[in-house]
Amino acid sequence: MEVFDRPEFDGHELVSFGHDPATGLKAIIALHSTALGPAAGGCRMWPYASTAEAVADVLRLSRGMSYKNAMAQLPFGGGKAVIIGDARKAKTPELFEAFGRFVESHGGRYITAEDVGTTTTDMSNVARATRYVSGLGRAPGEAGGDPGPQTALGVFLGIKAAVKFKLGRADLAGLSVAVQGVGGVGYHLCGMLAGEGARVLVADVHAAALELVCREFKATAVSVDEILSRDVDVLAPCALGAVLDASSIARLRTRIIAGAANNQLAQGQDGTALSAAGILYAPDYVINAGGIISVAREYYGGATQAQVTTEIHGIPQRLTEIFERARRENRTTNAVADQMARERLTRRPQLLVA
Ligand code: NAD
Q1: How much of the chain exceeds pLDDT 70, in percent?
Q2: How far apart are CA 15 and CA 31, in angstroms?
Q3: Domains of the chain, CATH where assigned
Q4: Which of 128, 232, 255, 296 has its CA 20 to 30 A from that of 92?
Q5: Catalytic residues
Q6: Mutate to test the pocket of ligand 1, among 153, 190, 204 (most ligand atoms within 8 A of CB)
Q7: Which atom in ligand 1 lies closest to the alpha carbon of residue 150?
């Protein structure tokens, strides 16, 4: 298995493979950078078609976490884990406990939490074997728990910042927003958008999730093939990565892209195509940092939900700074964000105040 020669390899510090025959666990942990602190990032459970596909994903996602944590000014490096398996069929408490042992074997260099396919219950099972886990249950008012709603809040505030910058409007009333994927993040995002009077279009491969948001928030369902090409003010990708490539960009009819999914651009140059098409792109790892902010606060302890909410309100300001700098320097927003993240990776972070 090639790792060092893969295009996704970016000087990662460590890539480790964990197997537990008793539970069927097959997992990979990638630490991209621990320069700013222990590598933190969620654990994704996904039925990858091959080990190579899983390796590519964990390499890309862990690098994204280095950038995300640096931009959110958290005392964390970047890491990620993937478990190869179908989250709807292959989960057992023992499997996640075995994954916890795998996390523990890294001696605190990697801290895990939820991502696509994993939940607070799964993290509780991970916590039986390691303390290097966050995103657990919490008492009312305390920081932490499921990061999905926190991510959704950051994305919602980020959409408002993008709308203000691009369309010169302070509210979302009457604007149309297409949300691709209405799972842990997309569901909460739809609620916030509907609450502000936006017209919400949704698509999901999971029929029950789609029905729920249509019923609860009066969202309009469209097909998964159509959602990216609808004529809308904002497109919010909240499913999986690499949805923006040459072919999908050619079909876009939106003015803003601002969503939760990690690694939305298939390649860096796709940001240039978006910019050429006059579409404002909110860099994914900046707008979707709400969840890791919550995870960080929970992990270090003693913080309240109110403090997490205040920190998440810093996301629109960071985005606006990126939008303005990109316009001033005639560069893409993703290039500006990447540069800012790399600069921060070489500086010491501000410490969290509990
Ligand atoms: P999730 O698994 O709960 O939800 C994803 C949803 O997307 C599911 O309902 C799934 O059925 C749907 N989906 C999958 N493929 C689709 C397709 N082709 N078209 C339409 N829908 C499709 O995951 P989540 O926690 O909501 O995360 C969503 C995205 O945001 C992921 O890319 C994740 O990495 C990213 N993200 C999540 C968090 C978090 O706090 N959960 C934080 C940062 C980034």
Answers
A1: 97
A2: 6
A3: 3-126 (3.40.50.10860), 148-288+317-344 (3.40.50.720)
A4: 296
A5: 80
A6: 204
A7: 40
